[in-house]
Write a structure and sequence with these properties.
single chain; two-stranded antiparallel ribbon; 7 helices; globular
């Protein structure tokens, strides 16, 4: 039960962090915000025999919530599309959704948000001419993505 309490505590910390620093990269903020939770747990339960195992479970649980729910809601345009459709009682046409995508992704800085994230992650660099190129890390990551796409028959 204490793992659930600490996970809930992480959610509260993460919510506060996002309201204080909304411009940051959500995924990394989720990882950073679990650190005080893990430290608190460690110091309050250091005499526990299963302390390290429970710390690992808390980290993995918060990581799973962060990547599968919070980061997905932030990044997935399928989710944004559902929210857009819900906002209009009359529904939306394909043209409406295309316009919303253009206005809310491209014009609202969606490309620069993603390139900034990829630069912060070390996957791309930008030269003085404004040209993006994969870093060595990015090359490896793209190879992994190609294998996953092939293995799972993804588009």
């Amino acid at each position: 039960m204490k793992i659930a309490y600490y996970t809930f505590f992480w959610i509260i910390i993460f919510i506060i962090y996002r309201h204080l620093k909304p411009a940051g990269i959500v995924f990394y903020q989720g990882i950073i915000s679990v650190i005080p939770v893990l430290l608190l747990y460690y110091f309050l339960h250091r005499a526990s025999k299963n302390n390290i195992h429970e710390l690992l479970i808390i980290f993995l649980l918060t990581y799973a919530i962060n990547i599968t729910i919070i980061t997905t809601v932030d990044r997935a345009y399928s989710i944004k599309m559902l929210i857009w459709i819900d906002e209009g009682s009359e529904g939306k046409t394909t043209e409406d959704l295309e316009q919303l995508f253009a206005n809310n992704f491209i014009k609202a800085g969606g490309v620069s948000k993603r390139t900034d994230e990829q630069m912060a992650s070390g996957n791309i660099d930008k030269n003085d001419d404004g040209i993006y190129r994969l870093t060595q890390r990015g090359v490896v990551l793209v190879k992994i993505f190609h294998y996953v796409k092939f293995a799972f028959n993804l588009n």
